[in-house]
Amino acid sequence: MCSDTKSDHSTDDDTRTSQYQPLQEKRPQNRKKCTWKGIAAQSFVTSAVMLSSASCGMPVGYSAVLLPQLKYPNETLQIDDEIGSWIASVHSAATPFGSLLSGLLMDRCGRKLALQIASLPLILGWILIGLSPNHAILLAGRVVAGLSAGLTAAAGQVLIGEITEPHLRGMFSSVPFASYSFGILLVYALGSVLPWRLVAGLSTVLPVLAITIFFFLPESPVWLVRNDKPEKARKALVWLRGGDSIQARLETEHLTERIEREQKIETATRTGNVIFRPEVIKPFIIINVFNIMQIFSGTYIIVFYAVDILGHINNQMDHFMTAVLTAGVRFIFSLVASALLALIGRRALALTSGLGTAISALCLGTFLYPRDNCTISDSGGYFPALCVLLYVATNTVGFMILPGVMLGELFPAKVRGLAGGLTFMIFNFVLFATAKAFPVMKNGVGVHGVFWIFGGTALVASVFLYFMLPETKGKTLSQIEDYFQEGNVTWVTRKKGEDKTVHV
């Protein structure tokens, strides 16, 4: 049995405690237990989101298996490094526009319908890729698929956050990243044995399945209440809470009262004023700096160019199978990260990931330096491959997972859509530029230099996170917002009295 927990949104008071104290007193009483039916219902919704996330992971990893096949002598769509860099990176160039549209789509259509709509361009993108007669159509397919990824990311995280109970939210909000890694693994595996056009055709299966399953699931209760549909919200909560009609009624009343109170207390707040509030701008800076350093530490570059990079590191191994192995490690450690998020703090996970990434990348770069400079010609056996696997494992367990989890924890609920959309936009623009520039960077500094950059950036990121990243495990969202509203500049110089853990 689970320990005592509060209602679904008892932690979502993202306004000042003094303003909402009367509302907090009317919250539903703590539940004495959580039912397995409720856990199963919430798991079912999360699983549908995981299908969408896996669907979005497939086009990200697709370039790693597509580019080598397009260089085969008998391939009709031959490419050089320039067009190859466009094929790898243009997906990320389109994603920011989907991220900006996702907030509007979620508010207008609902979280569930937004996810269904988001899968449609992905299906179209795969069809264009699979049937492409030339590079232009191939690039168009990558653009359309990238737009879908942007539409999906925020909607999936928001839906999970709004349907799960607090004690399940941390774990459930991280599992879409595991399914995202599984999508990369799946496309690597398919691409290692099948032609790229057939892989594109098979990749339409997951988004079609996700669209179908969502027809049988309820909409977010939060969205339903905000759109004057309290009865539908109550019915959705009855199902999500395993038939507990009393809890569902109390949660619906709480959501309704909260929204009414917000409308009375929050006088017309302009977007320009909100974004520069301390509780918004501070986490916005932390998350975006973390995201940029994550990209420069190579998290996604390895995904985009896995086969080419691994082929340079060890030319005696099957590059496709080695790429599949790295994707398998990424998937496994995504699952490990989901479990660790329920056991240890965010800071410990971030710092362990950063230092592990730095050490493995710097060691690999140092090992490759003599060979890149023709001092030796030995491939080094399996040592460089083990360094790559260690790099992928440590990088995944923190750097890949945490920024997305932090987005749901650090931003206040009222601006989560706007701030999340802007964050995803910045992230994907930087990712596009980095992926596009990678071939030039690799030719300029060598693969050893690339890994030195990865390791150095991870080391700098670890220092930044040590000083700036707050510990949010066991904290309510109100406590997190209160922390950012204080005069704190860094976490290590905060008032220790503010660091009180509240289990939810």
Main features:
disordered N terminus; mainly alpha; 21 helices; 504 residues
Summarize the structure.
This protein has 504 residues and is mainly alpha-helical.
Oligomer: single chain
Number of strands: 0
- Structural class per helix/strand content? mainly alpha
What's the helical proportion of residues? over 70%
Span between termini: 15 Å
The largest sheet, given as strand count, sense and whether it forms a barrel, is:
none
What integer value in Å does the Rg equal? 23 Å
Average pLDDT rating: 80
Shape: globular
Helix count, per DSSP? 21
Low-confidence stretches: 1-32, 268-272, 500-504
From N to C, what is the helix and strand string?
HHHHHHHHHHHHHHHHHHHHH
Q: Into which percentage range does the β-strand content fall?
A: under 5%
Secondary structure topology:
Layout: H1 17-25, H2 36-70, H3 81-109, H4 111-131, H5 135-163, H6 166-193, H7 196-202, H8 205-214, H9 221-226, H10 230-240, H11 245-265, H12 271-274, H13 278-296, H14 301-304, H15 306-313, H16 319-341, H17 346-372, H18 383-400, H19 402-410, H20 416-468, H21 477-485
Helix pairs in contact: 2-3, 2-4, 2-5, 2-6, 2-8, 3-4, 3-5, 3-20, 4-5, 4-7, 4-8, 5-6, 6-16, 6-19, 10-11, 13-19, 13-20, 13-21, 15-16, 16-18, 17-18, 17-20
